[in-house]
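Journal club prep — side note

Before the paper discussion, L.F. wants everyone to see what a predicted structure for a comparable chain looks like in token form. Sequence:
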Amino acid sequence: MHKLLQYIGQIICFALIAIFIGYFSNRPVYHQFPEGKAQIKLAFAHGAAREIDCRRLTSKEIAKLPPNKRRPNNCSRERIPIHIQLTIDGEMIYDDLLIATGLSNDGPGRAYQKITVSAGEHIINVRLRDSKRESGFDYETTRQLTLKAHQNLAIDFKADTGGFLFR
């Protein structure tokens, strides 16, 4: 009889734990993203132009270098900052100067920005300057897109494919 009471007690204890876990696995209801909203993610890494242009070495200069350090060009490592702007429906959302990463400022500038917008039609304009020019932009893309509720729109940048990619 004593063993039977132990088994019944264990069954009741395990049933209460299972009910507790089952209830809190569905309650309270959690919404990761607001209803009727969409998300735009601007995310990329890009290396801008070098601060000082590369200089072609003469054959005499190359000959003076040790054999393991001979190269045709002499290039500085530092890169200029990247200017990036994101406008949605005519409103400036993101405007930043991305400084080159790395110990010698020779790595890519990185951007990651999440923007929550209402679902529907939007005009998105993205501009980027990665050269030494003082004004204007090297790359500019404007798209009119219809975003659905809970949609994620990713904006990436690839210079070799012509600029900004919308996915």
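L.F.'s comment for the group: The two ends are 68 Å apart (CA to CA). Keep this in mind when we get to the figures.
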